[in-house]
Amino acid sequence: MYSAIKRATLIATAALSLSLLDLVAWAPQVGAGAMAATLSYDGKLPIVNSPGIELGAYDPSGDFKDVKGDKIEHIFIPWQDVDLSSFGAAGEYAAAHGRSLLITVEPWSWSKERRVTSDQLREGVLSGRYDANIATVCAAAGALRVDTTIRWAHEMDDQTGQFIWSRWPPKDYIAAYRRFVTLCKKKAPHAKFMWSPKGESDMNEYYPGDEYVDVVGLTVFGLQQYDNDKFGHDRTFAEILAPSYALAAIHNKPVVVAEVGDAGDAVYVQSWAKSLTKPYPQFPKLVAVVYFDQREVHAWPHPYGLPDWRVVPSAGTQ
């Protein structure tokens, strides 16, 4: 099943770099022994609290395969250089595990050699040059027999330069997002749509309007060394989430932390594992967190490099 999901998620061109292929490598990287380690490793695997916030995961190594409390399967796809002929396997896997599907659609090719500039992408989306890409991806998503949420061009407020669609003029991003959702709804009428900023202070400048958003996604990562260097203490999940949640909550939509991860010593990661899905009265609209079970692919500022968010650091890509 994992190999089928890999085909469904991405059959990329040979030009893709290894590091980007690793991001979506659905082939199993852990066996039964490693799975046992996953469930006990320093308490890093998020603990499902009941009642509490729903848990999901982007899980390329299969670490969450047997976690009964995992309710959301997260996958990433580009909208260029992708073969969606087996895309249904991802939906079948999610359904078989009693999970809904969160699909992050990235509007570029994962081959760096085939990427256009930020301006070329923006102008192309707004002019309709990528309408066929939208139709193809959304038709595949619409054919899935599982509850599906589509997250397009996430972290548009990011300031690190990771994504070529980030920091567009807000009016242009809004127009592009609305175009995507309008066209996508025709092919995937039952899908929900997630507007998903990183959580910067100006994120609401990019809000496309209530009729285009079913749920708001946010990003929260806890890196112990960074916390102590910049803030002088270990920050908690709730502490990092609070400012962006306050900005998201004004839209009166459900809020999901679409990417969350933590890295640090045993005490730090155990604290995060216990806290991710517990009830938070101060965050009444927070309904789910989705763990990003992979090594970081875009370097943090020096000297932090590529933090390892995986619940089993020895598994998967090195």
Give a brief rundown of this model.
This protein is of the alpha/beta class. It has ten helices and eight strands.
Structure characterization notes:
This protein has helices spanning about 1-10, 20-25, 30-40, 90-95, 120-125, 130-140, 170-185, 225-230, 235-250, 265-275, and strands spanning about 55-60, 70-80, 100-105, 150, 190-195, 215-225, 255-265, 285-290. The chain starts with a helix and ends in a 26-residue tail after the last strand. Helix 10 links the parallel strand 7 and strand 8 (about 285-290). An eight-stranded parallel β-barrel has the order 1-2-3-4-5-6-7-8, surrounded by six helices. The protein has a single domain, classed as Alpha-Beta Barrel (TIM Barrel), CATH 3.20.20. It is globular and about 50 Å long. The protein has ten helices and eight strands. With about 325 residues, it is α/β, with parallel strands linked by helices. Helix 1 (about 1-10) crosses helix 4 (about 90-95) and helix 6 (about 130-140) crosses helix 7 (about 170-185).
